[in-house]
Amino acid sequence: LHSFFFCWLLDMPLKKRILGVVWPDFLWFWALFLLALHLSDCERFVSFADAFAPTRAISTCSFRGRTRHCLFATMDNMKTSVYIAVTVDGFIATAEGDVSFLEQYHGSPSSVKNNKYDFESFMNSVDVIIMGRKSFEKVLSFGPEMWAYGKTRIIVWTRQQNGIEIPSHLKDQVSCSSEPPLDLLSQLSSNNDDGERSFNHAYIDGGQTIQSFLEVDAVSQLIVTRVPLLLGQGIPLFNPNSPKSKNLEHQETIDLGNGLITSCYTVVSD
């Protein structure tokens, strides 16, 4: 049925023969697309549509509480990376959000020369940061002298935009958004007035933010440094209740010494 609707949408003479009238194309488009959604068979509709337009990027988005393929939400090949330290038992912070256990490793001598995965090298490749509200507030609590992000643009991803106080010296650099992950990335990767892409590489930071972006396949790279510590309990890096698995392609693992091991993975698209 959806296949017929899609052919009908593309075939103006067919519409003339059947109805004897012609609506504007945009009315046909929305009427038939909304009917397809109502019939709750979006996957088959998109699959057939993609056969006619194989160059159209198809991403996943949330629809009626389920993850579905979506024709209109796309990252436009924008690179999105998670760069984070995690304990051997999978935690990024204590239950209270404390990360002071990482201080003992700060400034530890590395056994690797010219480590391409050090934070400075990574940040030099990033042009926008998407950070959760709790992470942003935690970073601010460290004081201006500990600010590690230079002038890089920061988007605080939060549902409570009115509850965030941005320091005056960061107002030109930091803004807030509650857009769904794919919509936000699509906006950030769109072309600017000069015809160039606004942003190319996003750094995704914060426990809940990372989990939310992973759930909708909005993360393309994981750079994870394992810390030789069993925390016991705390904030997990990955959602233990995630309904689906994800395949990772291992790129490289580096032993930094002092028990620190950094691994880089590419997230394999479904």
Plain-language structure description:
There is one protein chain. The chain has 270 residues and is an alpha/beta fold. 28% of the residues lie in helices and 25% in strands. It has helices at residues 2-10, 12-19, 25-38, 42-52, 119-124, 133-141, 181-189, 207-215, and strands spanning 59-63, 66-70, 79-87, 91-93, 128-132, 153-157, 174-177, 201-205, 221-227, 235-236, 248-257, 260-267. Strand 1 and strand 2 (66-70) form a beta hairpin. Helix 1 (2-10) runs antiparallel to helix 3.
Briefly characterize the structure.
This protein is 28% helix and 25% strand. It has helices spanning 2-10, 12-19, 25-38, 42-52, 119-124, 133-141, 181-189, 207-215; strands at 59-63, 66-70, 79-87, 91-93, 128-132, 153-157, 174-177, 201-205, 221-227, 235-236, 248-257, 260-267.
Ordered list of secondary-structure elements with their pairings:
Elements lengths: L1 H9 L1 H8 L5 H14 L3 H11 L6 E5 L2 E5 L8 E9 L3 E3 L25 H6 L3 E5 H9 L11 E5 L16 E4 L3 H9 L11 E5 L1 H9 L5 E7 L7 E2 L11 E10 L2 E8 L3
Parallel strand pairs: 3-8, 3-9, 5-6, 5-8, 6-7
Antiparallel strand pairs: 1-2, 4-10, 9-12, 11-12
Helix pairs in contact: 1-3
Keywords:
270 residues; 8 helices; alpha/beta; eight-stranded mixed beta sheet
* Element-level helix/strand string: HHHHEEEEHEHEEHEHEEEE
In which range does the helix fraction lie?
Answer: 25-40%
Taking the sheet with the most strands, its summary is: 8 strands, mixed
Structural class, from secondary structure content?
A: alpha/beta
Low-confidence stretches: 1-10, 14-19, 40-74
Q: Radius of gyration, Cα only, in angstroms?
A: 23 Å
Count of helix runs = 8
Mean pLDDT: 78
Strand residues, percent: 25-35%
Q: Shape from CA axes?
A: globular
Distance between the termini: 26 Å
Number of E-state strands: 12
- With strands numbered from the N-terminus, the spatial order across the biggest sheet is 7-6-5-8-3-9-12-11
